[in-house]
Amino acid sequence: MSIKLHGYWRSTATYRVRIALNLKGVDYEYVPVHLVANGGEQHSMDYARLNPAHLVPTFVDEDEDIILNQSLAIIEYLDERYASDFRLIPEHKTERARVRALAQDIACDIQPVGNLRVLNALKGTFNASQDDVSVWAAHWITLGFDAIEKRLQTQSGKYCFDFDVTMADICLVPQVYNAKRFNIDMDQYPLISKIADNCNALEAFEKAKPENQIDAS
Amino acid sequence: MSIKLHGYWRSTATYRVRIALNLKGVDYEYVPVHLVANGGEQHSMDYARLNPAHLVPTFVDEDEDIILNQSLAIIEYLDERYASDFRLIPEHKTERARVRALAQDIACDIQPVGNLRVLNALKGTFNASQDDVSVWAAHWITLGFDAIEKRLQTQSGKYCFDFDVTMADICLVPQVYNAKRFNIDMDQYPLISKIADNCNALEAFEKAKPENQIDAS
């Protein structure tokens, strides 16, 4: 298969790309990279040649001779590569900008501060316990969701933007999954919760769920 | 003036948008938001109405009736709004993807983990000293720059991509500025250093420097 996605079932960044591939109807080969087993397979020499940052996901499109990291860059690439299909980023410039900003509210302000490597570093550097790092992760998710819930009050419909499923929803659903792992009370976020439920009713989101991946454990 | 940028002189995310505005030749009003004085002006009620995440920058385009956060979303918006000018994101889909990925290597993997609010939280939560948080910030910059230096070996020229200045350079230069604040030895990164020097020789980058802003202190 010419499209490969190297990733980890629980990685929310990988999860985003799986949803995008499914929404676009793109067949792909999923190559598991276990972030915990074997000292972290993302540190293997083979993987580091694909992605010198030792992070997932990495996307390969052999037909176009491109190896790409960064989930949002991959999603935008998919949207441009399969441009005739359903759009993940709308066409009008102000709508495009709002979709990107909301996606980045998650991908820049929430996810990076609470991901696995950061939580491990807190344990190693500051002797943080598992409880400490759970509180840490929950803090940043709460801060981020507080702001997103407010933004959704002015613009959302069935999805983050009333027009259709976009890259913003693709980022929101994995972050909600992650929030539940950290026991965030989602009743505080009725709009986020409703949108996540509406998305999860779609087959593209269902198929992309962590528990439905071959490397889930 | 119809374009306003609310930001902070030392914020690297604000610095990125200043460079993009200058490269595009867009006149704008700069509205300082002091992140430290007065308990943090980003927490004021007036500012929180503009940006419920209490983060900088916030960009306002009155003519298009849009208020936008997230530096990369703002930069892409500027590139689409002033599409006839010099492009910050190239036209071909694989080049666009690579530029976005490199920009996100900085905006998602480096900057969020070492920004002011995170360093303050480390002090508050884990009793970290100023030295501790400096080591923390330097660690993530080093990890990120190690990977970026490797990527640049396969693609860079005078700038991150040999074709021209792009959004990747717009993200790289502020991150180099930040790295120097944390005393990173930039001799480890000859390509990053050369590219930053080449960019800084351009007026658009010079005018955008933190020390050249009205709120610099």
Automatic annotation (TrEMBL), chains A, B:
<dbReference type="InterPro" id="IPR004045">
    <property type="entry name" value="Glutathione_S-Trfase_N"/>
</dbReference>
<dbReference type="InterPro" id="IPR010987">
    <property type="entry name" value="Glutathione-S-Trfase_C-like"/>
</dbReference>
<dbReference type="GO" id="GO:0004364">
    <property type="term" value="F:glutathione transferase activity"/>
</dbReference>
<dbReference type="InterPro" id="IPR036249">
    <property type="entry name" value="Thioredoxin-like_sf"/>
</dbReference>
<dbReference type="InterPro" id="IPR005955">
    <property type="entry name" value="GST_Zeta"/>
</dbReference>
<feature type="domain" description="GST N-terminal">
    <location>
        <begin position="1"/>
        <end position="86"/>
    </location>
</feature>
<dbReference type="GO" id="GO:0016034">
    <property type="term" value="F:maleylacetoacetate isomerase activity"/>
</dbReference>
<dbReference type="InterPro" id="IPR034333">
    <property type="entry name" value="GST_Zeta_N"/>
</dbReference>
<protein>
    <submittedName>
        <fullName>Maleylacetoacetate isomerase</fullName>
        <ecNumber>5.2.1.2</ecNumber>
    </submittedName>
</protein>
<dbReference type="InterPro" id="IPR040079">
    <property type="entry name" value="Glutathione_S-Trfase"/>
</dbReference>
<keyword id="KW-0413">Isomerase</keyword>
<comment type="similarity">
    <text>Belongs to the GST superfamily. Zeta family.</text>
</comment>
<dbReference type="GO" id="GO:0006749">
    <property type="term" value="P:glutathione metabolic process"/>
</dbReference>
<dbReference type="GO" id="GO:0006559">
    <property type="term" value="P:L-phenylalanine catabolic process"/>
</dbReference>
<dbReference type="InterPro" id="IPR034330">
    <property type="entry name" value="GST_Zeta_C"/>
</dbReference>
<dbReference type="Pfam" id="PF13417">
    <property type="entry name" value="GST_N_3"/>
</dbReference>
<dbReference type="GO" id="GO:0005737">
    <property type="term" value="C:cytoplasm"/>
</dbReference>
<dbReference type="InterPro" id="IPR036282">
    <property type="entry name" value="Glutathione-S-Trfase_C_sf"/>
</dbReference>
<feature type="domain" description="GST C-terminal">
    <location>
        <begin position="92"/>
        <end position="217"/>
    </location>
</feature>
